[in-house]
């Protein structure tokens, strides 16, 4: 099993080599945000299936760089979210509670900029060079943020899968690798799990 130092070095290498992919994902998010501001309202199914795409991107990047564990996990999780997402209705998501809204914005922002593995550059650089769609933790943080903003997309199974994977990676990143930013991922995943359990009780 790789040491913590070896894992961090591998993630640093992948983040650097995968920067062009990360930039493309930042552009895609900017385009989606502009479309939403202009009046586009994506359905719950679109959000659920679309959220699987950056996770599939993480899997692809991991396989390319021979990171077989993350490649396998994110292939399974990406496919799982996509398949579960196809069962979500086409209607618009509900309005999130105030705490879910605040936490969702914080998580999406964390995943979007996630500066831990970036070297050099200005603060503006973080807005287009973060490892979104490249590394597991920032991508999970962003997906969880979107899920909270979309009121869990109305699928307990979909939200639970994302929350469990987020809790696992956040805990490993914080406890084993010492990446303090991943405390945010743990909080966000716990928030999504709480939202899912609350929705289950109301159902």
Task: Please tell me about this protein's structure.
- This protein is mainly alpha-helical.
- The chain has one domain.
- Helix content is 72%, strand content 0%.
- It has helices spanning 4-17, 19-37, 44-50, 52-64, 68-85, 98-113, 126-129, 136-149, 156-175, 182-202.
- The termini are far apart.
Concise structural overview:
By secondary structure, the protein is mainly α. 72% of the residues lie in helices and 0% in strands. Helix 4 runs antiparallel to helix 8 (136-149), helix 6 (98-113) packs antiparallel against helix 10 and helix 8 packs antiparallel against helix 9.
Biggest sheet descriptor: none
Radius of gyration: 16 Å
Q: Give the total of domains.
A: 1
The shape, in one word, is: globular
Q: Count of DSSP helices?
A: 10
Helix and strand sequence: HHHHHHHHHH
Q: What's the number of extended β-strand segments?
A: 0
Mean pLDDT across every amino acid position = 91
- The helix fraction, in percent, is over 70%
Low-confidence stretches: none
Q: How would you classify the helix and strand content by structural class?
A: mainly alpha
Strand content: under 5%
Report how far the terminal alpha carbons are from each other.
43 Å
């Amino acid at each position: 099993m790789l040491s913590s130092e070896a894992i961090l070095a591998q993630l640093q290498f992948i983040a650097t080599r995968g920067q062009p992919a990360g930039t493309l994902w930042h552009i895609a998010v900017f385009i989606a945000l502009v479309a939403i501001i202009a009046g586009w309202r994506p359905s719950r199914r679109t959000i659920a299936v679309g959220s699987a795409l950056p996770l599939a991107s993480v899997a692809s990047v991991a396989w390319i760089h021979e990171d077989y564990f993350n490649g396998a996990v994110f292939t399974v999780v990406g496919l799982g979210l996509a398949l579960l997402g196809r069962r979500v209705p086409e209607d618009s998501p509900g309005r999130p509670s105030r705490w879910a809204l605040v936490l969702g914005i914080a998580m999406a922002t964390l995943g979007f900029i996630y500066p831990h593995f970036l070297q050099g550059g200005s603060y503006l650089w973080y807005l287009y060079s973060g490892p979104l769609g490249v590394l597991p933790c920032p991508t999970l943080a962003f997906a969880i943020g979107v899920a909270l903003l979309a009121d869990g997309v109305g699928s307990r199974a979909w939200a639970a899968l994302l929350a469990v994977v987020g809790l696992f990676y956040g805990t490993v990143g914080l406890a084993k690798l010492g990446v303090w930013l991943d405390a945010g991922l743990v909080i966000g995943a716990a928030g999504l799990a709480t939202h899912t359990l609350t929705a289950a009780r109301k159902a």
